[in-house]
């Protein structure tokens, strides 16, 4: 392949539209964790899980405000990794970036296998391994063409999920108000008496740790903002539009499920299907399964995009092999996309060869990554906002209630971590993730130490914390 130097200061594309970024932010929060995993939270806390979702939803609103403020002022494909580096140094920034990249590439494998497994329940003749690889190949092709194609795919994926939630809320409202002919309303009996919070505060706290992960993925908006034509305007619209809709969709859906499906019911394994069955809707299980498949594929598509852009950003800053910063004529970091998906493919192959031995271990190690990413985002915003205010810098988007709301978000995160460390099931996951962070931080520290020695030996060389030479355009 012929290569030529590209002199643009921002070599990635800028073809994402505001509507795509808005729907991406909304769709990234509405995933399989809501359609399938919401029953686990209800099982832990009963209808009082609504409190857990309100707390977790408040946290993600604060995180999105913080990321939105930083992304509007400094749109960058490295997003929170770059902001952490600006606030606390390149080692911290690189550690957060690599941590997020590892989480995404592992989750890519889980989502491909999960979507294939769900589809196999409807079409058992189709081999799971074949469907998993078809999903990966097709969505890799989408990511390799142009960011415009990626954005359009994510827009329609997100629109499908939003339509499913809206339809579910309409059916749920009709069921609860007794408007469905021949179907008796369950009323609000599940919310009265001791049944509202059967395990009290302990159940609510346990559910908080469980449901927090349902909002994982919203941070990708800050990554995608760098590839919009007007980042500041697009981020403002996305943040202001998405926040209240997330709460309406999540709280509305959970309210309906908690009102219709009692704690201890087998229906909590597939809560949306259980509600639709109670409403007398035929084919409910199949419909929800197909929506869950779409949710997983949407997440796979978005995670491959996010992983490739983070790898590109790390390479651009000298924190990863320079080849990962290569871009195509379509302004796509081709090598970063292929490297990210390659890790997922290898994981899929190993999981298929050794079922339940590879993927669960990897998911356990990276399981709490999103909590650490959110923590880094709030800490970075705290430091950078104080710096901007001190220097009199005008910001295109300002997080309201600063610094109190930023501090409140950190308090919520501290509470989630505390609950996680207390729980016997969640403690190993957190310890594994913290061990991974320590390993990455040590490796990045050694890398920077080596780079400084090389710079001292060869004056004039660009250090890794600075932008290296422009990336290449691959023909």
Walk me through what this model shows.
The protein is mainly α and 475 residues long. The chain is 69% helix and 2% strand. It has 18 helices and three strands. A three-stranded mixed β-sheet has the order 1-3-2, with no helix packed on it. The longest helix has 33 residues, at 90-122. The protein starts with a strand and ends with a strand.
Features:
18 helices, three-stranded mixed sheet, 3 strands, 2% strand, 475 residues, mainly alpha, 69% helix, globular
Whole-angstrom Rg: 22 Å
- Provide the β-strand percentage band: under 5%
Continuous helix count? 18
Helix content estimate: 55-70%
Largest sheet: 3 strands, mixed
In order across it, which strands form the biggest sheet?
1-3-2
Order of helices and strands: EHHHHHHHHHHHHHEHHHHHE
Task: Give the structural class.
Answer: mainly alpha
**For the terminal residues, how far apart are their CA atoms?**
6 Å
TL;DR?
The chain is an all-alpha fold and 475 residues long. Helices cover 69% and strands 2% of the residues.
Topology:
Blueprint: E1 3-5, H1 18-29, H2 32-35, H3 38-45, H4 49-73, H5 80-88, H6 90-122, H7 128-145, H8 147-176, H9 200-212, H10 220-224, H11 231-260, H12 271-278, H13 284-316, E2 327-328, H14 334-353, H15 359-366, H16 369-391, H17 404-422, H18 427-457, E3 472-474
Parallel strand pairs: 2-3
Antiparallel strand pairs: 1-3
